[in-house]
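Problem 12. The chain below contains 368 residues. Write out its predicted structure in token notation.
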Amino acid sequence: MLITARRLIPLGAVIATLCLVPACSRAQTLTQDEFIARMDTALDDIYATASEQPQHPLQFGAWLFYAHEAVIEQVPLQTLLDYADALIETGVHRIDINPGLFPWTDGNQETIAKYDALIDHIRGAGVAIGLNPEYSPTYHPVASFRQWRAAALPVYAELARRYQPDVFVVVHEPTTMAARMGLLVGPRAWRDFARDAAWTVKRESPATRIGAGGLAWEKAYFDAFASLRIIDVMTLDIYTLDDLPTYNEMIRTARRAGKPVYIEETWRSTCYTPEPGMTLEEISAIGIGDPAFRDLDIKWLETLAAYAGAWGLESMTPSWTQTFFKYMDGAGGLDPDYNREVAAAIGRGERTATFYAFQDLVRQRSSQ
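Solution.
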């Protein structure tokens, strides 16, 4: 049943420029039209190969971007509730939220009340909650990994106690988190943090499933997490096609450890020209809201769902869900003007073709 790397990815040369890594040195030599054409062909190839395999039913999550630590303070509660309702409208089984140290270490009761109301609202609709805490320097820069541990574990305990989430991913994208801290933190330190964080969550919420995982270039970290008995489920963040053979190996690692796997985050690779000082966040957000990529966004979701179904993964969660409501010429996922327009579109009840395509995907794949 499993897709082999050879059959799934005969695309190394074709997709070599479609990289999204913290220190990408491969120059983008394609025009936007060439990028779209080659990505389109690559997705067709992967979809055709994956569809030859037996397709297992999937559950679907969706990332509620405006509940992220870095932006929730500025977002009105009604926008958060409307955003959640729109995601629920697609039929998703779980809504994923990425909190951080703020507002918990600050005691910011107004923002805490937003999280309370939002999560109660989602739960009231019968939809599961996934919490994927991550580090952001927006409010609380840290000088050492020890400082992060000391700050994070009490927050994890409070999140688990307060919300009793269905899934709590104690570590995802560890190298991304460490890069934001300005630190180099190896697999052993992150494994120890994952173990301690998992026990912290379990003490407060015994029924919560504990997850951990990351990106393809974090396989050593993934392997370390898979060795922990306290970790219930392994997670993958997929933003590239040329790394699918590594993700295949990560899935096999999880299976050998007796653990299920799901795609915690996915979106298409971005089309960009590297510039000095460009950060991972800047790269990952380039052109996210540009309508030139709308059809590619839809095809990416369809293809990754086929890939997940072929491997028998539990679920798949798209990340840049602002595209469900608005596209704007040249818009990046982190552009303030774009996000103001997205929030307004959510308030007006607008939906894009990407929204409806995802809604259809949830209906079709959930019932297979």
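Discussion. The longest helix spans residues 32-51. Students who got a different answer should revisit the alignment rule from Section 12.3.
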